[in-house]
Amino acid sequence: xxxPDDQPPAPDTPDTQSIPDAPGTPGTPGTPDxxxxxxxxxxxxxxxxxxxxxxxxxxxxxxAIAGWLGIDALVSGEGKAPWVALATLLLLxxxxxxxxxxxxxxxxxxxxxxxxxxxxxxxxWGTVEAFRSGYSNEVLDTAGGKYQVWAVPVSLRGxxxxxxxxxxxxxxxxxxGRSPHSAPVADGPVRAQxxxxxxxxxxxxxxxxxxxxxxxxxxVRWAYEIVAPAAAGAVxxxxxxxxx
Length: 244
Prior knowledge:
With 244 residues, this protein is an alpha+beta fold. It folds into two domains: 46-102 and 223-244, no CATH class; 105-222, no CATH class. Helix content is 38%, strand content 15%. The protein is built from five helices and eight strands; from the N terminus they run E-H-H-E-E-E-E-E-E-H-H-E-H. The protein is globular and about 60 Å long.
């Protein structure tokens, strides 16, 4: 009979077993560390876009006329006429496009972006102090800056038309001059289109001005793609006209 004392000694057993690192454990070769993992992207919100339909229509008409006259001068002109036509087109086309087709306002829950003829202004809602409407629509920031909103012009005719509808009691939601982004409203004061857009921007400011993702700094970028060709056209036209 064998007793425990007579049994052969068992092989030494390590205190801890060697267990391979689990996948995804920081420090494992070939596995990205948690700090290297890209962060979750910020949520993107669809922009509300505001533009002037009358400005776009006028710009298209002016560009069509300028193109017709300019191309005719380039093809059938004599002497310096083709060069003068080319310089004039180089000057006028960017300016007409800047003042008619380019202006737009983009707004979402994080920021307001104003695209004016020669500048693009980016304002997080936290930097917007107020909106002001007089003979033009303007945005005031918390640092004292003032920016005109070219895409939303003030229409005195539209205000008079709205006042006449208000006097007639025509306050139906379909005739209120509300923008496409507005919720349908059955009654209320009649507002001109531009004034209604400014009201919507004020509502966005009130709703998101304190949001953490709506904070930041104001940025202003000059539209060199407009300024450069217009300046080149002005210089070329001046040289051609000075040559007699």
